[in-house]
Amino acid sequence: MIVMAFVRISVTKAITIIQDRGRLLCISNSDGYGRGMSSVRLLSVDLQNEFARPGGRLFRPRDCVNFLTDVVFPAAQSRQWPLYEIVSDYRDPAKPPEEWSCVPGSWAGTSLVPRDLLAGEPWVKATPSPAWTHPGDADSAGFSDWLTSTVGSPGPDCEVVVVGLMLEVCVLSTLQELTYRGYRPKILFEGVDTGSGDIEQKKLLFDALFPFWATPIHWNELS
User: Fold this and answer.
1) CA end-to-end span of the chain, whole Å?
2) Does position 3 have pLDDT exceeding 90, yes or no?
3) Which of 15, 58, 62, 135 could make a disulfide contact with 197, Cβ separation 3.0–4.6 Å?
4) pLDDT in tens, 161-175
């Protein structure tokens, strides 16, 4: 269980201490709490039961899930950071229904992102890339329009911080599509995980893939 505590040092200074089962995850400086971060926009990718909860077909234990639900999302609510979401619908007509995953309306397709935190309707994709809304049918313009109307146009005042699953597949594809459209996304280290959930694999991918597709940041830099 992740425990987050705010410790007041003085009238103007505080620190945030985050622990998981007694293990210190990070200490962040909360000076000027909530100020100067109004441009932050969180973009969650595939945080659905299929990937994130026991019983899901693609579930593996991944540290980022509890960190997002217990730390990041409550912080986003208190700091009024807009939260947007991309989810998957993997119903492939070429496959039998029993092989489908993330079916809308099903438990597996349900998102862990609280609906009341969303600042716009989710974008639903059919492949790892959000530019594809149906198998074999790209909707690149549609994704661009969704980004502009919800997240906002790319620019220095649009700080997109990407979180979710899985780092080497759908998260990476999302970062690539954002970059192609002129965004300069950031990726939260504690807010993503690989398919295996292995921390060393995540570190290796961060070193190998970034900062070409995104700027890596840690929670203490954001909070």
Assistant:
1) 20
2) no
3) 62
4) 999 999 999 999 999
Three-state SS string across 123-186, please?
EEECCCCCCEEECCEECHHHHHHHHHHCCCCCCCCCEEEEEECCHHHHHHHHHHHHHHCCCCCE
Side-chain half-sphere exposure of 121, counting CA atoms within 13 A: 7
Strand order in the sheet with 14-20: 2-8, 14-20, 23-29
| Predicted confidence (pLDDT) at residue 121 exceeds the cutoff of 50 | yes
Tokens (6 digits) for 46:
């595939």
pLDDT surpasses 70 at 19: no
